[in-house]
Amino acid sequence: MTKLRLGLLLILPLGAFAADPALLQMVMPDAQVVAGLQVTQAKNSPFGQYVLSHLSVNDTQLEQFTSQTGFDPRRDVSEIVIASNWDNSATENRWLALAHGTFNVSGITASVKTNGGVPEAYQGVTVLTLPPSQSGVRPTAIAFPDPATAVLGDAASVKSAIDRKQSNAPADGNLASKAQRVSANNDFWFVTLVPLSNFSSVVPERNLSGAMQGNLFAAINEARGGVRFGDTVTISAEAVTRSEKDAQALVDVVKFFAGLVQLNREKDPTAGQVATLLDSLQATTSGNTTSIVLSIPEQQLEQLLNTAHPSQAKRASLRTN
Question: pTM here?
């Protein structure tokens, strides 16, 4: 995800839009992966509005959920933080989705109960637990510790998050400090303390999944980064590798693929658009850390995405007009 010198490369003051400490406080202490989205900032940006318009296209499940509960996450959520301990053991893998916003608690509760949710009083909070869809999977639960906060995840993690909130337990210092720094400069952000090769099992594209099991990705021990929306969309990443040699090898690979695109800019219109965007790509190293920054004019990014998915872009345009 990012892996860059955000303090030097981005212009927002540190802490300007950092993740809410109240959400980070509820993250499990042994979390290895955490990501977040500043929804309010994102949806007020041109690119955020573009993304939301495409999320609205033919999403019947979302429309049905909104109709049943009176809750629309596109409108009513202001910030989201997602975390996991990322344990490859199916019985120990735990996760949380934490959100601030305006929640129709009664509507959501009624919908969860209709779908088999069982209410339970825990530490003065109603925890709604849904039975697992298949054996060997942990039950999913949702709770609202206060009217502006929602907690979703496996049942044990939801209850533990309530405990941490009510006891005012401090967030994990290492992960929380990294999350605060990255989130201060991005609308979407992430931090992973898990080697990137560990994510190969959840990547649906076979070739990419195979590539992630190779030496290059195995050399990345930690990563962080994000996307900042605006008239210019800034994508940044920082990868902490096993050695200085691995960091330089990663830069060389990034520049190699960027060069291939540049070579084809005259032959393929789409490659030409991508090549133009890659003109601003910066890839550097400092010790065993690789930093990558790409700044893309928002309108050019929209044009590229519309070219890649013309039918979807047309449907989104018809819906919003």
Answer: 0.82
